[in-house]
Amino acid sequence: MVTLKDPTLLRSDCLIDGKWIAAPGRDAPExxxxxxxxxxxxxxxxxxxxxxxxxxxxxxxxxxxxPAWSARTAKxxxxxxxxxxxxVIANADDLAALMTxxxxxxxxxxxxxxxxxASFLEWFAEEAKRTYGxxxxxxxxxxxxxxxxxxxxxxxxxxxxxxxxxxxxxxxxPALAAGCTMIVKPxxxxxxxxxxxxxxxxxxxxxxxxxxxxxxxxxxxxGVLTGSDVVRKLSFTGSTEVGRILMAQSAPTLKKLSLELxxxxxxxxxxxxxxxxxxxGALASKYRNAxxxxxxxxxxxxxxxxxxxxxxxxxxAVRKMKLGLGTEPGVTVGPLIDDAAVRKVESxxxxxxxxxxxxxxxxxxxxxxxxxxxxxxLTGVTQKMKVAREETFGPVAPxxxxxxxEEVIAMANDTEFGLAAYFYTENVRRVWRVAEALEYGMVGxxxxxxxxxxxxxxxxxxxxxxxxxxxxxxxxxxxxxxLCSAIG
Length: 488
Ligand SMILES: NC(=O)C1=CN([C@@H]2O[C@H](COP(=O)(O)OP(=O)(O)OC[C@H]3O[C@@H](n4cnc5c(N)ncnc54)[C@H](O)[C@@H]3O)[C@@H](O)[C@H]2O)C=CC1
Ligand SMILES: O=C(O)[C@H](O)CS(=O)(=O)O
Hints:
Helices cover about 35% and strands about 20% of the residues. It has helices spanning about 50-70, 75-90, 90-105, 105-125, 165-180, 190-205, 220-225, 240-250, 275-285, 305-320, 340-355, 385-390, 405-415, 430-435, and strands at about 15, 20, 30-35, 45-50, 135, 145-150, 155-160, 180-185, 210-215, 230-235, 255-260, 265-270, 295-305, 360, 375-380, 395-400, 415-420, 420-425, 440-445, 460, 465, 480-485. Helix 8 links the parallel strand 10 and strand 11 (about 255-260). The ligand O=C(O)[C@H](O)CS(=O)(=O)O binds near residues 162, 237 and 457. Pfam families: Aldedh.
């Protein structure tokens, strides 16, 4: 079990229509789903197994709450978002403890994510007041033209397990700031963090029906949220495969969509790179969250002149990593989310070795039990291997050798994904050539960490649609209205 300073943040019910409800069951007093710790398999909580009926209730509640919420001033909504931010900061240790219990990431990393999640609340508390319209010089003297911004309306969010707090606030913060209402369906693996955030939102003054969190049957709940004409927008973070399904389900009602999907990030190191910086960046980008982020370096392309030195330095650093329970001091790499994730990583490593790659370090599950996988480095990797074509979503660094800039750009772009890319060089002319040639929504130069609340996060190609965070993030929750007034 998880110990909290404020035990009321550990919820076993859902916030729907301003009420905390369990799941009324036919043969049992209520239907619940266990939440398990991926490091130990222990049950850390129970949440309601809700479905279509409760999703319909939530939609009706969100629609009822919309007029009053969108009629409040931006300043008023911003003040409530700021109070939510203050409460998340004040309860950051408890939120981090819940996150580590259900997702497994080391406590320090979980705390970092809580602060990252809070930053979206702080940012959009301010952006609420900057949804400016415009006036347009009319082509005829008898007209006055202007543009105003209005909230999209009732919104839905379906969020992943890898960032249980930040992927919720990165959607709910701009939605509520813009005057929308939102129904959140968190991942079945990590609902406790979402429910705790809802407790704090309620305490901050977010009215009934404005923010709702529903757990249970993803397909049934998702089917209602995507099929309803009342829901005007869906924001999803998760696999490209599910993103396609949700997009198709949303098509009949022509919803606005924000999709943050899979990635296959190249991490390119040229001969002239600062090797210390490149190693630091590779460790941060590759092994953050045990490699379970959509912007993790998935392919490491190292120019021939420094290939052996880079491999040796990276191996030396990786061997110092400490695998273990997220609550243990000094642990830097936690477990993967579930057994399926471990099997996917194992299949990628086995495929690479079968095709001639060399295992430098790691390459197996340690004797810890749970869903742990050793931080791994492979050399002699080629574009034909699964690690080059698929998102590994685990702590595996495949090192590819390259000779020329043209060759590596072609290899880096040889994927259907286009989320994040990274490269290291000290040549200023090359910075512009490579940054502009890489087909990705986000590019890091001489850094492996690019995510923050002020920058537009999102991808191109099959990594998704739209942007989150930054001044662009709130536009995803606004409609433009053009007003033409004849005064002649
Ligand atoms: N872009 C990103 O940040 C993420 C990418 N992924 C990728 O997806 C792969 C699979 O991870 P999963 O957790 O299984 O991601 P997923 O895409 O299956 O799940 C993400 C969310 O979608 C929901 N969902 C799944 N199927 C649904 C459906 N038919 N209707 C409505 N909701 C549905 C889940 O309940 C969860 O809330 C990972 O290995 C990784 O490659 C996973 C998580 C985050
Ligand atoms: O979904 C993810 O993996 C996150 O968006 C990555 S980040 O925002 O924490 O970098």
